[in-house]
Design a protein that fits this description.
The protein has 96 residues and is mainly β. The protein is 0% helix and 33% strand. It has strands at 32-37, 42-47, 53-57, 63-66, 77-82, 88-92. It is globular and about 40 Å long.
Length: 96
């Protein structure tokens, strides 16, 4: 979103941004619930029903999944933050 021109540009595609395989039907809902901006400008979205953390490079608009696959469960993480040590920490839901 460009706040100076009031325009929106979509980045990423369905091969990267998708629901976890356990979600039936595959309705593309609840992939990510919460995110944080790291000191290097990367944005990390924490998986709810998706299987991996999503990383967005705000300088290049590169979108990619990072870290290991988290296959089991729905509603994995609700939120998190990135600390000064450049690590991201997430809050687990009560279901996990």
């Amino acid at each position: 979103m460009d706040t100076e021109t009031d325009t929106i540009e979509l980045i990423g595609d369905e091969s990267v941004i998708r629901s976890g395989r356990h979600r039936v039907p595959q309705d593309n809902k609840y992939k990510y619930l919460g995110g944080a901006i790291a000191p290097n400008g990367r944005i990390f979205l924490f998986p709810c029903d998706a299987e991996r953390v999503l990383s967005i490079d705000s300088n290049t608009d590169e979108v990619r999944c990072v870290g290991p696959a988290i296959l089991d469960g729905e509603n994995k993480y609700q939120n998190g933050f990135c600390a000064k040590d450049s690590c991201c920490y997430v809050r687990c839901t009560l279901d996990n």
